[in-house]
Design a protein that fits this description.
The complex is a heterodimer of chains A (185) and B (102).
Chain A (H helix, E strand, L loop, with lengths): L1 H20 L3 H21 L3 H26 L6 H7 L2 H23 L15 H8 L4 H22 L8 H4 L1 H10 L1
Chain B lengths: L5 H21 L3 H25 L4 H31 L13
Helix pairs in contact in B: 1-2, 2-3
Classes of the chains: A mainly alpha (185), B mainly alpha (102).
Chain lengths: 185, 102
Protein backbone atom coordinates (compact mmCIF):
# COMPACT_ATOMS: atom_id res chain seq x y z
CA UNK A 1 0.00 0.00 0.00
CA UNK A 2 2.77 2.42 0.80
CA UNK A 3 4.72 1.45 -2.30
CA UNK A 4 1.80 2.69 -4.43
CA UNK A 5 2.15 6.09 -2.77
CA UNK A 6 5.82 6.35 -3.67
CA UNK A 7 5.30 5.20 -7.27
CA UNK A 8 2.37 7.60 -7.77
CA UNK A 9 4.37 10.44 -6.23
CA UNK A 10 7.27 9.75 -8.57
CA UNK A 11 4.91 9.68 -11.55
CA UNK A 12 3.34 12.97 -10.43
CA UNK A 13 6.68 14.76 -10.11
CA UNK A 14 7.97 13.33 -13.39
CA UNK A 15 4.83 14.28 -15.30
CA UNK A 16 4.88 17.79 -13.82
CA UNK A 17 8.50 18.26 -14.88
CA UNK A 18 7.51 17.14 -18.38
CA UNK A 19 4.63 19.66 -18.32
CA UNK A 20 6.82 22.65 -17.57
CA UNK A 21 9.50 21.72 -20.10
CA UNK A 22 7.31 21.14 -23.17
CA UNK A 23 7.21 23.69 -25.96
CA UNK A 24 3.94 22.48 -27.48
CA UNK A 25 0.85 23.21 -25.43
CA UNK A 26 -1.03 20.06 -26.39
CA UNK A 27 1.90 17.86 -25.36
CA UNK A 28 2.08 19.72 -22.05
CA UNK A 29 -1.63 19.14 -21.48
CA UNK A 30 -1.21 15.39 -22.10
CA UNK A 31 1.36 15.26 -19.32
CA UNK A 32 -0.82 17.52 -17.17
CA UNK A 33 -3.63 14.96 -17.31
CA UNK A 34 -1.18 12.25 -16.22
CA UNK A 35 -0.02 14.48 -13.35
CA UNK A 36 -3.58 14.99 -12.12
CA UNK A 37 -4.29 11.25 -12.36
CA UNK A 38 -1.17 10.52 -10.31
CA UNK A 39 -2.28 12.98 -7.64
CA UNK A 40 -5.67 11.24 -7.65
CA UNK A 41 -3.92 7.93 -6.90
CA UNK A 42 -2.05 9.66 -4.08
CA UNK A 43 -5.43 10.79 -2.67
CA UNK A 44 -6.63 7.19 -2.88
CA UNK A 45 -3.68 5.91 -0.90
CA UNK A 46 -4.22 8.70 1.63
CA UNK A 47 -7.72 7.41 2.38
CA UNK A 48 -9.70 10.04 0.48
CA UNK A 49 -11.48 8.14 -2.33
CA UNK A 50 -14.16 10.79 -2.89
CA UNK A 51 -11.53 13.46 -3.45
CA UNK A 52 -9.73 11.14 -5.89
CA UNK A 53 -12.92 10.87 -7.95
CA UNK A 54 -13.41 14.64 -7.83
CA UNK A 55 -9.82 15.21 -8.91
CA UNK A 56 -10.28 12.99 -11.97
CA UNK A 57 -13.66 14.47 -12.89
CA UNK A 58 -13.04 18.17 -12.31
CA UNK A 59 -9.31 18.65 -12.84
CA UNK A 60 -8.40 16.00 -15.42
CA UNK A 61 -11.83 16.22 -17.03
CA UNK A 62 -13.34 19.66 -17.00
CA UNK A 63 -10.45 22.08 -16.55
CA UNK A 64 -8.06 20.44 -19.01
CA UNK A 65 -10.79 20.10 -21.64
CA UNK A 66 -11.62 23.80 -21.18
CA UNK A 67 -7.98 24.75 -21.80
CA UNK A 68 -7.84 22.47 -24.85
CA UNK A 69 -10.95 24.16 -26.28
CA UNK A 70 -9.38 27.59 -25.91
CA UNK A 71 -6.13 26.43 -27.53
CA UNK A 72 -8.09 25.01 -30.44
CA UNK A 73 -9.96 28.31 -30.78
CA UNK A 74 -6.80 30.37 -30.76
CA UNK A 75 -4.51 28.49 -33.12
CA UNK A 76 -6.98 27.24 -35.66
CA UNK A 77 -5.51 29.21 -38.53
CA UNK A 78 -1.88 28.30 -38.09
CA UNK A 79 -2.08 24.55 -37.72
CA UNK A 80 -2.58 22.63 -40.88
CA UNK A 81 -2.93 18.98 -41.72
CA UNK A 82 0.81 18.36 -41.86
CA UNK A 83 1.20 19.64 -38.33
CA UNK A 84 -1.65 17.43 -37.23
CA UNK A 85 0.01 14.44 -38.84
CA UNK A 86 3.30 15.26 -37.16
CA UNK A 87 1.59 15.32 -33.77
CA UNK A 88 0.37 11.75 -34.05
CA UNK A 89 3.81 10.17 -34.12
CA UNK A 90 4.29 7.44 -31.50
CA UNK A 91 7.17 9.19 -29.76
CA UNK A 92 4.81 11.94 -28.69
CA UNK A 93 2.18 9.84 -26.96
CA UNK A 94 4.29 6.94 -25.70
CA UNK A 95 5.53 8.94 -22.70
CA UNK A 96 2.11 9.83 -21.23
CA UNK A 97 0.84 6.37 -22.16
CA UNK A 98 3.67 4.70 -20.24
CA UNK A 99 3.16 6.86 -17.14
CA UNK A 100 -0.60 6.36 -17.13
CA UNK A 101 -0.06 2.61 -17.59
CA UNK A 102 1.89 2.63 -14.33
CA UNK A 103 -1.10 4.33 -12.68
CA UNK A 104 -3.47 1.75 -14.19
CA UNK A 105 -1.36 -1.08 -12.76
CA UNK A 106 -1.53 0.59 -9.36
CA UNK A 107 -5.31 0.97 -9.63
CA UNK A 108 -5.74 -2.71 -10.49
CA UNK A 109 -3.48 -3.64 -7.57
CA UNK A 110 -5.51 -1.50 -5.19
CA UNK A 111 -8.77 -3.03 -6.43
CA UNK A 112 -7.41 -6.56 -6.01
CA UNK A 113 -6.24 -6.10 -2.43
CA UNK A 114 -9.36 -4.18 -1.40
CA UNK A 115 -11.51 -7.11 -0.30
CA UNK A 116 -11.01 -6.03 3.29
CA UNK A 117 -12.05 -2.51 4.34
CA UNK A 118 -9.51 -0.23 2.80
CA UNK A 119 -6.55 0.38 5.03
CA UNK A 120 -5.10 3.77 4.21
CA UNK A 121 -1.38 4.24 4.32
CA UNK A 122 -1.52 7.21 6.64
CA UNK A 123 -3.72 8.22 9.52
CA UNK A 124 -7.36 7.40 9.02
CA UNK A 125 -9.83 6.63 6.32
CA UNK A 126 -12.37 9.43 5.76
CA UNK A 127 -15.23 8.37 3.51
CA UNK A 128 -17.64 10.51 1.52
CA UNK A 129 -20.33 10.31 4.21
CA UNK A 130 -18.22 12.08 6.82
CA UNK A 131 -17.21 14.68 4.26
CA UNK A 132 -20.81 15.36 3.28
CA UNK A 133 -22.00 15.59 6.89
CA UNK A 134 -19.27 18.09 7.72
CA UNK A 135 -19.76 19.99 4.47
CA UNK A 136 -23.46 20.64 5.07
CA UNK A 137 -23.11 20.94 8.84
CA UNK A 138 -20.50 23.36 10.15
CA UNK A 139 -19.29 24.40 6.70
CA UNK A 140 -22.60 25.34 5.08
CA UNK A 141 -21.57 29.00 4.98
CA UNK A 142 -18.59 28.01 2.84
CA UNK A 143 -20.89 26.16 0.46
CA UNK A 144 -22.98 29.32 0.00
CA UNK A 145 -19.86 31.39 -0.53
CA UNK A 146 -18.72 28.87 -3.17
CA UNK A 147 -22.05 29.32 -4.91
CA UNK A 148 -21.56 33.08 -4.97
CA UNK A 149 -18.03 32.61 -6.29
CA UNK A 150 -19.22 30.34 -9.10
CA UNK A 151 -21.95 32.82 -9.99
CA UNK A 152 -19.38 35.60 -10.19
CA UNK A 153 -17.20 33.33 -12.32
CA UNK A 154 -20.00 32.64 -14.79
CA UNK A 155 -20.91 36.33 -15.11
CA UNK A 156 -17.28 37.36 -15.39
CA UNK A 157 -16.44 34.76 -18.02
CA UNK A 158 -19.50 35.76 -20.07
CA UNK A 159 -18.72 39.45 -19.81
CA UNK A 160 -15.03 39.07 -20.67
CA UNK A 161 -15.43 36.44 -23.36
CA UNK A 162 -18.11 38.29 -25.31
CA UNK A 163 -16.94 39.64 -28.62
CA UNK A 164 -17.82 43.30 -28.66
CA UNK A 165 -19.45 44.25 -31.92
CA UNK A 166 -17.75 47.23 -33.46
CA UNK A 167 -20.41 49.81 -34.30
CA UNK A 168 -19.50 52.17 -37.13
CA UNK A 169 -21.84 54.68 -38.63
CA UNK A 170 -22.71 53.94 -42.21
CA UNK A 171 -21.28 57.24 -43.47
CA UNK A 172 -17.96 56.35 -41.89
CA UNK A 173 -18.10 52.85 -43.34
CA UNK A 174 -18.50 54.11 -46.88
CA UNK A 175 -15.83 56.70 -46.50
CA UNK A 176 -13.12 54.52 -48.02
CA UNK A 177 -14.74 53.68 -51.38
CA UNK A 178 -16.03 57.24 -51.68
CA UNK A 179 -12.55 58.63 -51.29
CA UNK A 180 -11.27 56.24 -53.97
CA UNK A 181 -14.03 57.32 -56.28
CA UNK A 182 -13.32 60.98 -55.72
CA UNK A 183 -9.67 60.29 -56.38
CA UNK A 184 -10.61 58.62 -59.65
CA UNK A 185 -12.80 61.52 -60.59
CA UNK B 1 -0.27 -1.44 9.39
CA UNK B 2 2.51 0.32 7.61
CA UNK B 3 2.24 4.05 7.46
CA UNK B 4 3.71 6.76 5.31
CA UNK B 5 5.16 9.64 7.29
CA UNK B 6 3.21 12.84 6.91
CA UNK B 7 6.40 14.62 5.89
CA UNK B 8 6.60 12.69 2.63
CA UNK B 9 3.15 13.80 1.55
CA UNK B 10 3.93 17.39 2.44
CA UNK B 11 7.26 17.06 0.61
CA UNK B 12 5.43 15.91 -2.52
CA UNK B 13 3.05 18.88 -2.25
CA UNK B 14 5.97 21.23 -1.81
CA UNK B 15 7.80 19.81 -4.82
CA UNK B 16 4.73 20.17 -7.05
CA UNK B 17 4.19 23.72 -5.80
CA UNK B 18 7.80 24.64 -6.51
CA UNK B 19 7.60 23.19 -10.01
CA UNK B 20 4.51 25.30 -10.70
CA UNK B 21 6.19 28.41 -9.29
CA UNK B 22 9.31 27.85 -11.41
CA UNK B 23 7.14 27.42 -14.48
CA UNK B 24 5.31 30.71 -13.79
CA UNK B 25 8.65 32.46 -13.49
CA UNK B 26 10.38 31.03 -16.57
CA UNK B 27 7.49 30.88 -19.03
CA UNK B 28 6.21 33.79 -21.09
CA UNK B 29 3.34 32.02 -22.85
CA UNK B 30 0.25 33.10 -20.97
CA UNK B 31 -1.55 29.75 -21.29
CA UNK B 32 1.47 28.02 -19.76
CA UNK B 33 1.31 30.46 -16.87
CA UNK B 34 -2.35 29.57 -16.31
CA UNK B 35 -1.49 25.85 -16.36
CA UNK B 36 1.25 26.49 -13.78
CA UNK B 37 -1.23 28.25 -11.51
CA UNK B 38 -3.43 25.15 -11.77
CA UNK B 39 -0.46 22.98 -10.75
CA UNK B 40 0.16 25.18 -7.71
CA UNK B 41 -3.51 25.10 -6.65
CA UNK B 42 -3.49 21.33 -6.99
CA UNK B 43 -0.39 21.09 -4.80
CA UNK B 44 -2.06 23.24 -2.14
CA UNK B 45 -5.07 20.93 -2.20
CA UNK B 46 -2.76 17.94 -1.85
CA UNK B 47 -1.27 19.48 1.30
CA UNK B 48 -4.79 19.87 2.77
CA UNK B 49 -5.60 16.23 1.94
CA UNK B 50 -2.39 15.01 3.58
CA UNK B 51 -3.09 17.00 6.75
CA UNK B 52 -6.71 15.86 6.86
CA UNK B 53 -5.64 12.26 6.42
CA UNK B 54 -3.07 12.56 9.20
CA UNK B 55 -5.64 13.59 11.78
CA UNK B 56 -8.48 11.52 10.23
CA UNK B 57 -10.77 14.55 10.01
CA UNK B 58 -12.96 15.56 7.04
CA UNK B 59 -11.93 19.23 7.22
CA UNK B 60 -8.99 18.81 4.88
CA UNK B 61 -11.16 17.26 2.18
CA UNK B 62 -13.71 20.08 2.56
CA UNK B 63 -10.95 22.62 2.04
CA UNK B 64 -9.97 20.67 -1.09
CA UNK B 65 -13.54 20.96 -2.39
CA UNK B 66 -13.39 24.73 -1.87
CA UNK B 67 -10.02 24.91 -3.66
CA UNK B 68 -11.52 22.88 -6.51
CA UNK B 69 -14.44 25.32 -6.80
CA UNK B 70 -12.09 28.28 -6.77
CA UNK B 71 -9.86 26.68 -9.41
CA UNK B 72 -12.82 26.06 -11.72
CA UNK B 73 -14.02 29.68 -11.44
CA UNK B 74 -10.46 30.96 -11.84
CA UNK B 75 -9.73 28.97 -14.99
CA UNK B 76 -12.95 30.09 -16.68
CA UNK B 77 -12.30 33.78 -16.00
CA UNK B 78 -8.61 33.37 -16.88
CA UNK B 79 -9.38 31.76 -20.22
CA UNK B 80 -11.83 34.53 -21.05
CA UNK B 81 -9.07 37.05 -20.28
CA UNK B 82 -6.66 35.09 -22.50
CA UNK B 83 -9.16 35.22 -25.36
CA UNK B 84 -9.49 38.99 -24.95
CA UNK B 85 -5.70 39.48 -24.84
CA UNK B 86 -5.28 37.34 -27.95
CA UNK B 87 -7.89 39.31 -29.84
CA UNK B 88 -6.35 42.62 -28.79
CA UNK B 89 -2.67 41.82 -29.23
CA UNK B 90 -2.66 38.86 -31.68
CA UNK B 91 -0.10 37.07 -29.54
CA UNK B 92 0.08 34.95 -26.39
CA UNK B 93 3.32 36.48 -25.12
CA UNK B 94 2.63 38.08 -21.75
CA UNK B 95 5.41 40.63 -22.29
CA UNK B 96 3.37 42.10 -25.16
CA UNK B 97 0.88 43.42 -22.61
CA UNK B 98 3.41 45.60 -20.81
CA UNK B 99 1.87 48.80 -22.10
CA UNK B 100 -0.87 48.38 -19.50
CA UNK B 101 1.02 50.31 -16.84
CA UNK B 102 -1.61 50.89 -14.22
Amino acid sequence: MELTFYIAAAVAVLATIMVITRYNMIHALLYLVVSFLAVAVVFLTMGAPFMAALEVIVYAGAIVVLIIFVIMMLSLTREDVEQEKAWLQPKLWVGPALLSFVLLAELVYLLVIAEMPATPATGGYVDARAVGLALYGPYVLGVQLSGILLMAGIVGAYHLGRQKKKVIHRFLQEKEPQKERSAVL
Amino acid sequence: MTTIPMEYGLLLAGMLFMLGLISVLIRRNIIFMLISVEIMLNAAGLAFIVAGSHWAQPDGQIMFIFILTMAAAEVSVGLALILQIYHQLKTLNSDAANFMKG
